[in-house]
UniProtKB/TrEMBL annotation:
InterPro entries xref list: Rtr1/RPAP2_dom, Rtr1/RPAP2_sf
Protein name stated in the entry: RTR1-type domain-containing protein
Signal peptide span: none
Coiled-coil region list: none
The species this protein was found in: Huiozyma naganishii (strain ATCC MYA-139 / BCRC 22969 / CBS 8797 / KCTC 17520 / NBRC 10181 / NCYC 3082 / Yp74L-3) (Yeast)
RTR1-type domain sequence ranges: 52-126
Family: Belongs to the RPAP2 family.
């Protein structure tokens, strides 16, 4: 399957839910499940796509996405196109280093997990699914949208030298 784009998410997951601004609990879950299905055997084509889907994930649903990807033998990080050397990873080890192609993607994924919450649930995140909200030409940060570890590293790289970045990384790793 081709890499998942913002347009894919828009057409497959959001477009069916444009009739009302308030999702039902079931619709909210359907929407998230649809994105998870897209990413179960594929990956986000770019960081914009990963940021774009993040408001549609609670912490629990994102962990499910990680697990589904691992069960297919894929690196749990949704922005990664790599398969795991050891084949599929079960629920027991999903979320551990075994579920990732590299330490970097383990960190990237934890950086996202740290920003997600189960509260509020998707259906109470008012209007997040309404496409009229999106400015596709200028993807500004949306409510509930996560920041990526890659961006954090880029920002740090312009502020500090590599030694400082490594110290910061160690501090970050100890925080989870
Ligand atoms: Zn990876």
């Amino acid at each position: 399957m081709n890499a998942v784009t913002v347009k894919d998410v828009y057409e497959n997951a959001l477009l069916p839910h444009q009739l009302h601004a308030q999702l039902s609990e079931r619709e909210g879950q359907l929407l998230t499940n649809e994105i998870t299905a897209l990413l179960s055997d594929s990956y986000c084509i770019d960081d914009t796509t990963l940021k774009f889907i993040s408001p549609f994930y609670t912490l629990s649903d994102y962990k499910t996405l990680n697990l589904v990807r691992n069960s297919r033998g894929r690196c749990a990080y949704p922005l990664c196109d790599k398969f795991l050397n050891g084949g599929s990873v079960t629920a027991e080890f999903s979320g551990s280093m075994l579920g990732f192609c590299s330490g970097l993607h383990y960190d990237c994924n934890n950086y996202i997990l740290n920003q997600l919450s189960d509260d509020p649930p998707i259906y109470l995140r008012e209007r997040i699914h309404m496409v009229s909200r999106f400015d596709f030409a200028n993807m500004r940060k949306q409510t509930y949208q996560v920041e990526l570890f890659e961006d954090y590293l880029k920002k740090k790289a312009t502020e500090y030298d590599m030694d400082t970045i490594n110290i910061e990384l160690d501090k970050f790793r100890m925080s989870y």
